[in-house]
Structure formats: structure tokens, C-alpha cells
């Protein structure tokens, strides 16, 4: 994943944090723009229209939560990620529930940060427009079966959220939750890559090699992920089933406890449980159903 000049606005009132992050983004081919506070960031956003905004949650005058709200009012599809430290977990959770695309714990672990920004960047680039008049849609059902190529996830997510974008003003949260669950099904389910293995590969710059090796090995290479999708004007339901051995989901961090925001693993599932109205696993943990109740259709 490379930046290809993608504009990213970085907002933080600590100059050394801005310097480190923008230097890293520049090194990976992005076009970073700096802002020292939320007020200036909002003006920069209006004039520069960056693809991604990365903002600290705790800032004077206008904090990251208010900045997120103001940006979303102007551009509902804007991609905003937040940076949070110990003591600001409740604000960060509120930001995620209000449409933040991701979060990063301070001090930021740069290999994981660049990887996550790359995922957001690829997802933004894969966006497409659809001309179908969704006022005519009453019910839609689809089933998708895919292998373990993570690069295909973006097109799958877009295909399975086209109609949802009409029925919900918060389609980005649905897309993020679905993206996380399909990624988990492939990465941790079918390929049986542990959190520790992924972090080690990220830090060593060998994540793609790990994916390729595992995807070609027995018994992982024959495994599939099935996504069942159903939408009506009231709700959208996705069921994601992998062919891995499953896991004990009963030990997942409770999204109701702000302290769990800083947990080392399970971030994707944690965010999905914040974004969606229901997240239900089967007994073995290799199938998850996520549900989002939708707003009335747009007029």
C-alpha cells in the first residue's frame, strides 16, 4: 500500500507529534497537511478537501470530537481517524460511535499506524458511484463466497453496501464494521494468523509475505469465506462465516467499558461492536452476524 500523493490532514496541538507523523506519511508517499488545532483544521479541510483526517481527541478550543462532528456535517463520507491516550477513552468511544473511521493509541506504534492508514487509503480509492434509484428497492439478498485474497475485500464491501448508502446516513460505519469482520474471517479465521504473528510481521515489514505463505499452505489455501447479506428499509444484516477453527468470543473486550479501548488486541471487533447494533457469534466463533438498524430513506 502506497500513498500516491493522497492528501492527509494531521491535527494535533503538540508540534513534535505533528512532525513525527507527517514525516512518516511523507516517507510513505502521502501528502500530509498540518493543523495545530481544530479551528484551523476545519478551515484547511474546507479548502484542501483531504481524503483522510487524523486528529488528536484532546485539544483546546475545538477538540477532536467537535472537529469530527463539524467535518461529518459538511461531508458525511469523510474519513476521520482519531488519536487517543489514557484518560480520554470515553471521548474516543463517543467519536467512534459518531462516525470516526479508526483510532490510534498514543504513543503511536508506527508500523501499525502506516498499515491502518494504507487500509483506509485503499478503501477510499475503491469507492464507486451507482446510478440505480434505490427508492425502488424494497428487499435485497446476496451471498458472496470469496477466497483469502485481502485485496478483494474492498470491492466486496462496496458491492454489499451500495443500497445501504441510500438508507443510512452512517454507511461508513457499516462499511468499516463489515470490512473488519471479513478481514478477521480471512486473517485470523481461515489463515489462522495470530495477533502476535501479525504484529511481529508488521514490525519486520514482512506482513505481505506472511499472508502469501499462509494462503498457499495446507490446509489454509482451500478455505473460503461466505458472506450472506440481507437489506430492507429497516435494517441491514451481514453474516460472515469462515472455515477456520473458531475462537472463544466470550472473552472479547466489552465495548461498554472505555478502558477496553486501549486493549492490545481485538480492536477491529471492538470497533464493530460500537458501530453496529448487534454483533452475535455462533458457539464455535467462526460465524458472526452483524446488524445495523437503518434510518428512514432519504428524500
3D structure, described in words:
Strands 2-1-3-4-5 form a 5-stranded parallel beta sheet, with helices on both faces. It has a 5-stranded antiparallel beta sheet with strand order 6-7-8-10-9, with helices on one face. Helix content is 40%, strand content 19%. The longest helix is centred in the middle third of the chain and has 20 residues. Helix 6 crosses helix 8. The chain has 2 domains: 119 residues, Response regulator (Rossmann fold); 160 residues, Histidine kinase-like ATPase, C-terminal domain (Heat Shock Protein 90, 2-Layer Sandwich), CATH 3.30.565.10. With 299 residues, the protein is α/β, with parallel strands linked by helices. It is built from 11 helices and 10 strands.
Amino acid at each position: 500500500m502506497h500513498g500516491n500523493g493522497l492528501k492527509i490532514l494531521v491535527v494535533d496541538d503538540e508540534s513534535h507529534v505533528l512532525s513525527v507523523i507527517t514525516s512518516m506519511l511523507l516517507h510513505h508517499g502521502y501528502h500530509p497537511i498540518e493543523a495545530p488545532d481544530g479551528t484551523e483544521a476545519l478551515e484547511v479541510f474546507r479548502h484542501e478537501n483531504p481524503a483522510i483526517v487524523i486528529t488528536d481527541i484532546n485539544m483546546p478550543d475545538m477538540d477532536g470530537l467537535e472537529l469530527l462532528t463539524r467535518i461529518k456535517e459538511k461531508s458525511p463520507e469523510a474519513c476521520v481517524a482519531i488519536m487517543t491516550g489514557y484518560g480520554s477513552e470515553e471521548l474516543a468511544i463517543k467519536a467512534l460511535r459518531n462516525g470516526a473511521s479508526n483510532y490510534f493509541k498514543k504513543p503511536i506504534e508506527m508500523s501499525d499506524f502506516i498499515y491502518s492508514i494504507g487500509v483506509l487509503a485503499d478503501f477510499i480509492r475503491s469507492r464507486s458511484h451507482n446510478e440505480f434509484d434505490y427508492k425502488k428497492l424494497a428487499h435485497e439478498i446476496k451471498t458472496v463466497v470469496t477466497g483469502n485474497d485481502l485485496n478483494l475485500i474492498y470491492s466486496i464491501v462496496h458491492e454489499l453496501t451500495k443500497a445501504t448508502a441510500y438508507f443510512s446516513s452512517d454507511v461508513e460505519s457499516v462499511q468499516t464494521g463489515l470490512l473488519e469482520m471479513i478481514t478477521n474471517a480471512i486473517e485470523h479465521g481461515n489463515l489462522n494468523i495470530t495477533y502476535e504473528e501479525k504484529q511481529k510481521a508488521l514490525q519486520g515489514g514482512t506482513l505481505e509475505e506472511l499472508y502469501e505463505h499462509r494462503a498457499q499452505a495446507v490446509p489454509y489455501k482451500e478455505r473460503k469465506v461466505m458472506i450472506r447479506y440481507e437489506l430492507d428499509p429497516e435494517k441491514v444484516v451481514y453474516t460472515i462465516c469462515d472455515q477456520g477453527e473458531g475462537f472463544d468470543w466470550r472473552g472479547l473486550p466489552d465495548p461498554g467499558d472505555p478502558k477496553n479501548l486501549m486493549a492490545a488486541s481485538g480492536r477491529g471487533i471492538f470497533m464493530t461492536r460500537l458501530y453496529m447494533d448487534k454483533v452475535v457469534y455462533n458457539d464455535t466463533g467462526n460465524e458472526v452476524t452483524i446488524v445495523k438498524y437503518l434510518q428512514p430513506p432519504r428524500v
